């Protein structure tokens, strides 16, 4: 599985970054975005994505365990 950003090529995306990609774009995606590129793609801020990650963790989402 490739875990580098499809846009900028950033290497070794962390598990939270991969988790938020899967949560927002679908669990069967093959390509991932780094936080900066994902925020741009979704037209939101990185801070908003980080807040969402914390929310999902608090809800017990298994993508972030």
Describe the structure.
- The longest helix has 13 residues, at 46-58.
- This protein has 65 residues and is mainly alpha-helical.
- It has one domain (15-64).
- It has 3 helices and no strands.
In brief:
It is built from 3 helices and no strands.
Blueprint of the fold:
Elements (H helix, E strand, L loop, with lengths): L14 H11 L9 H8 L3 H13 L7
Looking at this protein, list some descriptive labels.
mainly alpha
Estimated share of beta-strand residues: under 5%
Q: Please state the CA-atom Rg, rounded to the nearest Å.
A: 11 Å
Number of strands: 0
* Percent range of helical residues: 40-55%
Major sheet summary line = none
Average pLDDT figure: 95
Spans with pLDDT under 50 lasting ≥5 residues?
Answer: none
Structural class: mainly alpha
Assign an overall shape: globular
Please, how many helices?
Answer: 3
Q: Could you give the order of the helices and strands?
A: HHH
Taking the alpha carbons of the first and last residues, their distance comes to 19 Å
Number of domains: 1
């Amino acid at each position: 599985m490739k875990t580098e950003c499809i846009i900028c090529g950033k290497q070794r995306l962390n598990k939270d970054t991969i988790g938020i990609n899967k949560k927002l774009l679908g669990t069967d995606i093959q390509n991932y975005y780094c936080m900066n590129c994902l925020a741009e793609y979704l037209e939101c801020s990185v801070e908003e994505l980080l807040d969402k990650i914390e929310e999902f963790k608090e809800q017990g989402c298994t993508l972030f365990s």
